[in-house]
């Protein structure tokens, strides 16, 4: 079985579900090129726990974990099945790497998972489960967390880190989704692209120390850690391909990255 790519996706505001902008069609196009996975694993900053937890829910609920948005948003569902057996494999891998991972039979899909999946795989016919993001991380630890999950990509599982390439909620122009991009956000995005093009995962893990405007782009870095998880699951030997998503609300980059090539056979059919 050939190895699947891993993905980092910027999930933006919950309204991304209703307002696809540039990123929605880009994710839809990406989804059409991906081999059909056996299951999808999503790590999102909207499920953070003290120690790792893995959702073993057979039928994960669509979690509307936000407030004050248009009523239509709360009607959306992503009725994909869960993947309890694959989730148990993730638990075993995390434990083998020294993490005290535990199953969670209640957790569904938070908006960091289901909102981008609405665009990426709208049929909701591939099993999905989440792995929580540990609360105490830095770049190196988030990368190592992805490394622990890396064998799943060899087993037909699509590993997705869902976060935000920039995430300064203090400066978001909620009243202006098409506001001009702030220069500092663009500078940060360009630095990430340069580092990933060079496959320099050592510098990537030190983003919050080395990148220009890092503290302003990520006053709280939890939305950056899924990028490290995705990169760690892929490793530095594969190329990173940018999927441009534009900049929304002036400061939220919607870029995604695919780590790895696409010339692999369908793992289910193989």
TrEMBL record:
Keywords: Dioxygenase, Metal-binding, Oxidoreductase, Zinc. The keyword Transmembrane does not apply. The keyword Zinc applies. Residues 35-239 form the Extradiol ring-cleavage dioxygenase class III enzyme subunit B domain. CDD domains: 45_DOPA_Dioxygenase. It comes from the Bacteria. It holds the Pfam family LigB. One of its GO terms (molecular function) is dioxygenase activity. Signal peptide: none annotated. Its cofactor is Zn(2+). Belongs to the DODA-type extradiol aromatic ring-opening dioxygenase family. This is Dioxygenase.
């Amino acid at each position: 079985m050939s190895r699947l790519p891993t993905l980092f996706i910027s999930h933006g505001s919950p309204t991304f579900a209703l307002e696809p902008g540039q990123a929605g069609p880009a994710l839809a196009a990406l989804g059409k090129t991906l081999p059909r996975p056996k299951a999808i694993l999503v790590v999102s900053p909207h499920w953070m726990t003290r120690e790792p937890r893995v959702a073993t829910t057979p039928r994960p609920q669509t979690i509307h974990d936000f407030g004050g948005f248009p009523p239509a948003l709360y009607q959306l569902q992503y009725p994909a099945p869960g993947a309890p057996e694959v989730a148990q494999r993730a638990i075993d891998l995390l434990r083998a790497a020294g993490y005290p991972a535990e199953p969670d039979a209640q957790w569904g899909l938070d908006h960091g998972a289901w909102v981008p999946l609405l665009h990426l795989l709208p049929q909701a016919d591939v099993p999905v489960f989440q792995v929580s993001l540990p609360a105490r991380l830095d770049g190196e630890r988030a990368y190592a967390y992805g490394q622990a999950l890396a064998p799943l990509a060899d087993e037909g599982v699509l590993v997705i880190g869902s976060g935000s390439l920039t995430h300064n909620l203090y400066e978001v122009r909620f009243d202006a989704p098409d506001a001009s991009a702030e220069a500092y956000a663009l500078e940060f995005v360009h630095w990430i692209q340069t580092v990933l093009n060079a496959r320099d995962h050592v510098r990537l893990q030190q983003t919050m120390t080395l990148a220009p405007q890092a503290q302003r782009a990520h006053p709280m870095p939890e939305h950056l850690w899924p990028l490290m998880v995705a990169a760690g699951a892929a490793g530095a030997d594969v190329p990173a391909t940018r999927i441009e998503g534009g900049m929304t609300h002036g400061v939220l980059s919607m870029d995604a990255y695919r780590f790895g090539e696409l010339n692999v056979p369908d793992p289910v059919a193989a």
